[in-house]
Amino acid sequence: MTVRRTLTALTAAGVAAASLTGATSASAGGHHHPGKPLAFDRVATYPVFQNRPAGEDPASPTVAEISTVTPDGRTLIYTDALGRRIGFLDISRADKPRGLGTLSLAQLGDAEDEPTSVSVVGKYVLVVVNTSRSYTEPSGRLDVIELATRKRVASFDLGGQPDSIAISKDQRYAAIAIENERDEEATPPGGDEGDLPQLPAGFVQIVDLTGRSPANWRLRPVPLTAADGTALPALVAAGITEPTDPEPEYVSINGRNQLAVTLQENNGIALVDLPTGRITKVFGAGTATVSGIDTKKDGVIDLTGSITDVPREPDAVAWVDDRYLATANEGDWRGGSRGWSVFDSRTGAVAWDAGNTFERLAVTYGLHNEDRAAKKGTEPEGVAVAEYDGVRYGFVGSERSNFVAVYDLSNPTRPVFRQVLPSTNGPEGLLPIPSRGLIAISSEEDDASVNVRASVSLYQLGRGTPAFPTVVSANDGQGTPIGWGALGALSAVPGKPDQLYSVTDAAYSSTRILTIDAERTPAVVTGALPVRDAAGQPVGYDAEGVFARPQGGFWLAVEGAKGPENKLVRLDAAGVTKQVVPLPADVAGGLAKQGLEGVTATTDRSGREIVWVAVQREVATDPAGVVRLGRYDVQAGTWSWYGYQLGSTSVPGDWIGLSEITVVGDRLAVIERDKLNGPNAALKRVYTVPMPSTAATAGPLRILPKTLAVDVLPALRETNGWTQEKLEGLTVAGNGQVYAITDNDAVQDATGETVFLRLGTARKVFGRG
C-alpha cells in the first residue's frame, strides 16, 4: 500500500452502465423512485484539509487513506499519513459530513510516526503505526484508542513495519500484515536496484482480542520464512518470486476465520488459519496477457496495445464469500495487469479475470489517464466486498483514473459490472457501510498548489438516478470504446437538433472533433473526426473552441503557449485544414499563455460570414480586467475588437477569464469563470452582451454591457463532488436547449470528472426562443 464486457452495437460499457443505473444529467436529484434499479449516488464530498487542527496552514498536505467506521455507522475515522494523525468525521447526516478533529500521533509517540491503517473493535479504534527508522530497521506498534475519550488504553510492539489490518467478523481476531517493505533505491547482492530480497523478512501478526480489556489482548506472529531465514517449502512450491522476503501487503478475513494475505511484490497469496496460526495454503497469482489497451504515453488514446505474461502482483484483497477471493492487481515492480481477479481459494486457480474491461471503463467514462498509459494504466489498488439489501457488491478502485467500479458479485465467478463512482484523486480506502446503505471512498493525493485536495466521498444506495455519468462513449463499431477527454468547447451540429460537437485540446497530441448525442441520457460520444493539417497529416492544435459552419466544415479557436501561436483555423467537413488566420501582431504580442478560448460565427442572407472569438485574459496593453472579443470578417479578411469587463477576485493566485462564446439571437453569450475548484470555486457564470452589427472603429476598446444569464455554480455543486474548475463549453443546440460542459484536463492535476450540464431552454436561460 503506498503513501505515496466488451459490448456490442452502440452499447459500449458506459452506455450499458447507463441503462443499468439510470444515470442522468448532473442537475438531477437522488430521490427514490419505485421500480428503478438500485444504484449508488454520491451525496457528499468532504475535503479533509477542512478538518485540520486550528492554526495549521490550509495548504499543508493532509490526506485520507484508509478509513473505518464505528459500529453505529455514524463516525468515520481515517488515516492521514502526511499529517501524522488520524481524523474523525461525523457522518450521521451522510449528505453533510462534519469534521470532528484529529488525533496527532505525536501525542502517542513521535512526531514522525505514521499511521498505515485503522479499524474499529467495539468502543476502540485500532491504529496501526509505522515507527521505522529505516528500511533495514523496521518497527511499528498497534495503538488502541478509546473512542469516547480519544485516549490510548493499550499499545503493542508489532516487531516490524506494518501495513494493513483486518478484524474478523466475530471480532475475536485482528490480523496485521507486517510488510517490512523494500527500499526501491537499494540494490541487493547480485540484483538490480529495488530488487528483492531485502531483509528483514515480513510476517503476519495475529492479535487475539480476548477478554473485555485490551490489556488482555495477545499477539501471535505467523512467520512467512523459516527460523533461519530460509524459504518455507510452501512458498517455494507456489512459485513465489522471492520466498525469503515475502513482504505481506493486504489482509482480509472470511467468515471461517481464514486470513488471506497478499504478497504483492512476490505475486502471491497466502492463507492462514487464525485460530491455530497455521499457513494452510500458498499460491501464486499467476500472469496475465491483456490486449486492447493503451500501452504508450504518446498523447493518443490507442486501445491496440497489449501486455504479455505480466505478473498480477495483487495489492488489496477481499473475500467474496468463504471460498472466493477478489484481488486488485495494481502491480509493483514487475507487474500489474490493469484489472482485478477472482481466485478460488481451494485450488488457487483464477476463477475470473477482468482482462481489459477495467481499463476500458476508464476510456468509456472519460477517465483515461494517458500519462500512465506506458506504466500500469488505471492501477487498480483497492477492493472491497459487502452485502446490501441481499445483494453482494464488489468495489474496485483505480488509483490513477480516480474512480471505483461497482460489480454485482451474486455469482462470484461471473461478476456483473453495474456502475462507476467518480472520486477525487488517488482513491485509496474503500469502506462499505451496509447498515446505512453507504460506501465511503477516501483519497490520498493532496497538492494545494494545483488545487488537488484529498477527500472522503460518501455514496448512498437507492432507487434514485445517479448524477454520474453525464457523458460516456459508444464503441467505434468494432467493440472498442471511443477515447475522449478534455472537452473544453461545444457547438451545435447544423441540421441535427440533438447533436453537438466538441474538440480535444493540447492534452492530446492529435486533435479530434467529437460528436455527442445529447438526446440520450447520459450523453453519448458517438464519433471522432481526426483533424489534419493542409497536407492531410494528423495535427495537434490546442483547440479551445469549435464552431460547426452551416455551409460545411469548422472553425477552431487555437490557443498558443505564446501569443503569436494563437490563431483561427478553418477545416473542411473531413477535418482537413483549409485556412489559418493569425491574430493581429499587436494583439498576439500582448498575450501570454491564456489566449483564444472560444469561437462562434454568423452568416447573413448575403452569405457574409462573421467569426467571433473570446480571448481568455487581458492583452498586455489593455486596461486591467478588460478582455477582448474579436470580430473577424471572413470576406474582408479584417479584425476588429470589443472590450468585455471581467469580474474581480481577491483570492491569491486566482484570476478571472472567459472560456467560451456562442451566438444567441442578436447577442453573444460568454462563459466567465475563476480558476478555482472544489469548495473554493466562486465564479462560474454565463453572461450575454449585444452583438455589434458592424466592425469596431479605431481607438479605445468599446466595452460591451453585459447581462447575467445564468449562474452555473449551483448546478456544478449539485453533483455533490469536487466542484470542477473549467466550465469551458457552451452552446444552444438545434433543439433550443442550452448545454454546457467542463474540461477534465485529461485527468492531469484534476479529478478527471466531466460534467455535462443541461441548463434548459434558450428561452429560460436567455429569455428568448
Task: Describe the protein's topology.
Blueprint: H1 13-21, E1 39-47, E2 67-69, E3 75-80, E4 85-90, E5 98-104, E6 114-121, E7 124-130, E8 140-146, E9 151-157, E10 162-167, E11 173-178, E12 203-208, E13 218-223, H2 233-237, E14 251-253, E15 258-263, E16 268-273, E17 278-284, E18 287-293, E19 305-311, E20 317-319, E21 324-328, E22 340-344, E23 350-353, H3 357-364, E24 380-388, E25 391-398, E26 403-408, E27 416-422, E28 427-433, E29 438-443, E30 455-462, E31 471-473, E32 491-493, E33 496-503, E34 512-517, E35 523-530, E36 543-548, E37 554-558, E38 567-571, E39 577-582, H4 585-588, E40 596-603, E41 609-615, E42 626-633, E43 638-645, E44 656-664, E45 667-674, E46 684-690, E47 707-711, H5 713-717, E48 727-732, E49 737-742, E50 756-761, H6 762-766
Parallel strand pairs: 31-35
Antiparallel strand pairs: 1-30, 2-3, 3-4, 4-5, 6-7, 7-8, 8-9, 10-11, 11-12, 12-13, 14-15, 15-16, 16-17, 18-19, 20-21, 21-22, 22-23, 24-25, 25-26, 26-27, 28-29, 29-30, 32-33, 33-34, 34-35, 36-37, 37-38, 38-39, 40-41, 41-42, 42-43, 44-45, 45-46, 46-47, 48-49, 49-50
Main attributes of the structure:
WD40/YVTN_repeat-like_dom_sf, Esterase-like activity of phytase, 769 residues, four-stranded antiparallel sheet, signal, five-stranded mixed sheet, Methylamine Dehydrogenase, Chain H, Choice_anch_I, disordered N terminus, mainly beta, Tachylectin-2, Chain A
